[in-house]
Amino acid sequence: MNPALAYVVVYVKDVAKSVAFYAKAFGYTVRRIDESHRWGELESGQTTIAFTPRHQRETDDLTGVVQNPKSGYDRPPVEVCFAYRDVDAAYKRAVESGAEPVSKPEEKEWGQKVGYVRDIDGIVIRMGSYVQAPKQD
């Protein structure tokens, strides 16, 4: 049996701010924020979206320091993708909640509608429709 993907951890400047932003902009419910504000989680189904400070002393010595983009055009080496039934409405909500618009939703050749925004830390968020599996003959 394959292991389940349990967490995706996003390294951010301010955990509480990022948790509140993701809850408002992308429609998630906050599961918890610890008292130290060094860890926060959102309810997102089987996989938890978690947030922790960019400079986390507990892991810096073990796994290395998180690298920040060198310019506003550089992007972190991660993209967070959310699936929605109504991508246009989700995109509008995200932008109205403070996400930076990157690319309005458009139909792609593979049959998915996709739009892009950046979160308050500059992380690229892909907002796409669900993709149907091809029919078997």
Brief digest:
By secondary structure, the protein is an alpha/beta fold. It contains 3 helices and 8 strands, in the order E-H-E-E-E-H-E-H-E-E-E.
Q: Could you characterize what this model shows?
A:
This protein has 137 residues and is of the alpha/beta class. The protein has a single domain (7-129), classed as 2,3-Dihydroxybiphenyl 1,2-Dioxygenase, domain 1 (Roll), CATH 3.10.180.10. The chain has 3 helices and 8 strands. It has a 4-stranded mixed beta sheet with strand order 1-4-3-2, covered by helices on one side. Strand 6 (100-107) and strand 7 form a beta hairpin. The longest helix has 12 residues, at 15-26. It is globular, with a radius of gyration of 16 Å. The relative contact order is 0.18. This is VOC domain-containing protein. InterPro entries: Glyas_Bleomycin-R_OHBP_Dase, Glyas_Fos-R_dOase_dom, GlyoxalaseI/FosfomycinResist, VOC_core. Residues 4-130 form the VOC domain.
